[in-house]
Amino acid sequence: MSETLFQACGIARWRQQDCWPAAVLDGRAHYDADVRHPLATPIDGSALGWLGHATLSHTHLGINSAHNAYLSWRLIPAPQRGQLIACIAGKLRARRAALATLITLESGKILGEAEGEVQEWLDMCDFAVGLSRQLHGLTIASERAEHLLLEQWQPLGVVAVITAFNFPVAVWAWNAMLALVCGNAVIWKPSEQTPLCALAVQALVSEALQECQAPAGLCQLVNGDAATGGQLVADPRVALISATGSCAMGLAVAQGAARRLARTLLELGGNNAAIVTPSADLALATRAIVFAAAGTCGQRCTTLRRLIVHEDIAPALLAGLVNAYRSLPIGDPRQPGVLVGPLISASARTRMQAALAEAIRDGGELLTGDEQLPVGASNGAYVRPAIVVMPAQTAIVMRETFAPILYVLRYRDFSAAIALNNAVSQGLSSALFSNDLRETGRFIGPAGSDCGLANVNTGTSGAEIGGAFGGEKLTGGGRESGSDAWKNYMRRATNTINAGTALPLAQGLVFGERP
Ligand code: NAD
User: Model-level pTM?
Assistant: First the structure.
């Protein structure tokens, strides 16, 4: 079964005696004979082979080659660069089912969500192709006669992309599709937990690069750990580090980048809340809350982790939620009808159980959840999503536990609800369920939610690519995917052109003899 899948994803040719490459540089696989890590699927723990670890010299070579590719790619007109993206999209359409199956196998998310992730890459392709004819600058009225004042956007250089396990394809696509169309080269360090998805992406892109006669070095891949990521951060040839992962990782990357004042784009942890007010449509809110809190087994950066509900409607809302949670189909994410797959690892389950134990010590009341669910003879980390009513926003509620735990807090006054929403150190996503226009206005206004995403009558997760995605505070401040996020992958140059024969100076300054 896996063998056919590896072939369909174009990666079977890269496996050498059960070992997957440590790096794919200029379209060629490189192996490290010394360091190998075992790979297994979170679905049932069965082995997927071994993974090599990029050496210092693999990463060095990858950056070098990416830099050389950038030097020629930046001179290709942007609409022609868009044609490479169109070619990638064509190949992806032919391989979408296989890639989605691989995402499920390696990350454990249900097939429908994996298909959505592939669709997100396709959406990014469409967006980037359109963008290839719209990398607009500005013309500005000059105060000087016969002068032109312009702003142009120019390519940056090598963009390093460091990604997390939970979106093993889409987050790379957000970055790479924009980076390439903007005239840059990309070097990718994927999560240690999802390297096969990265290899499948790399195989597809390598074919497109060859077909379009684009430089093979435009997309490089190094498989490694935090140290490999650190090498990318420290290298002066890397112009931008786009890093997605935990807040702790982002702090380390930001400090490393600050040593050379390198640009960063950080997409870090969230601790997302939804406020449900008395005017809300409770049936709609219930459906949205279940998807946002239990979907992807609580392993989205935008997962709903805190429910802030008005005390008058709390009993009705919680009764509906507990009912819905108890009937959630949990199990093998490849099976039709299953809505919740496994956690990524046994240690993720241990962290979930420790968080629940702490919440209960703090006075929390567990409404549903906690048990470990053996699914068949499986070794997967299957859990039942949990709901815990908390007496207050305690330390455990303020932390992101990357698992399906929904903490419930009650409120009486709407201002207090907004204050609870904003009281955590992360600032990614938030939602309000209300049919009251004034509450909506306050929630999305300047004194409302302080998050990068503030939704009304829809959940915290499941963003479209058209808007800029990202969050404030410890979430890192980055914005990716749609809107004008492309500007992160370019440098702005202001050009003043004197088309006359005189030399008027700005601010009417006279330097030396008057004319
Ligand atoms: P993680 O922080 O453990 O790892 C993410 C990536 O960073 C991996 O590739 C890892 O090797 C690398 N890394 C770790 N330490 C590093 C260092 N010091 N220097 C350079 N690279 C380093 O995260 P994870 O467990 O894979 O993913 C879950 C986390 O990611 C959650 O906190 C989640 O909220 C966050 N996330 C955020 C977004 C977003 O867009 N805001 C999206 C997906 C996931």
Answer: 0.97
